[in-house]
Design a protein that fits this description.
The protein is mainly α. The chain has one domain. The protein is built from 2 helices and no strands. The two termini are 36 Å apart. The model has no long low-confidence stretch (mean pLDDT 79).
Length: 82
């Protein structure tokens, strides 16, 4: 799977899971207000970990692009030498 899709899916799945947890707790346990707390905590954690993950993903993409740029420069040099 292409790297951009991997990045997008990992973030999207986490966002869906945090919302789903709170929604299911509210629907399944309407008399227990505390049932939504784990989902709410997970939502906060998702915001924190998502920010960290996006920083990692940003660096991951930069390195790949730098490597491609170097490869392209080397290819252009070798072609111009011929």
């Amino acid at each position: 799977m292409p790297i951009p899709k991997v990045k997008a899916l990992s973030i999207e799945i986490g966002m869906q899971n945090s919302g789903l947890a709170s929604s299911l707790a509210t629907t399944s346990f309407p008399d227990l207000a505390m049932a939504t707390v784990p989902g709410a905590i997970f939502s906060v954690w998702h915001n924190i970990s998502g920010a960290m993950l996006s920083a990692i993903y940003r660096k991951w993409g930069v390195k790949d692009n730098e490597d491609k740029d170097k490869d392209n420069e080397e290819l252009e040099r070798s072609e111009s030498d011929e």
